[in-house]
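Target protein
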Amino acid sequence: MQVTEVTQGQFALVIGTNPSITKIPMWCQEQFASSLSIGGICLNNPVEAVSWADAQAYIAKLNALDDGYVYRLPTAAEWEYSARAGTQTPYYYGENPAELRDYAWYLDNSGSHTRAVGSKKPNPFGLYDMYGNVAEWVQDWYGPYSSGDAVDPKGPDVSV
């Protein structure tokens, strides 16, 4: 699991484009870069406006680097486990929903645009932005898991 969401800078470096909507200087100040071939990039803001297929193309190019790692999207179960970070409370930071502002960017505190990844507190596993900023893709479809206990359950192969 990557510690932060994939940034516009990471995506542009690997894919050569930046599909993001949030990519003007006023939304990322000193983290802004401009490229003749790519256009504006908020280097540390999460890449957004990316389809599942776009995410798969990014992963394929990462895997082609043959750097000793095998990259893939997490399953929904893996993402949920990582987001909860071993906690049993309603939120990984406790029970008070008002504390969300310390852990996540969302409509009421973001100015209606994405913000730099890792700029809020991490969860107990050290992962940032598990709540808010942008939605994340997972490998499998949303749907019910099979009944009974399971280790690393997979969702359905197709949408239900």
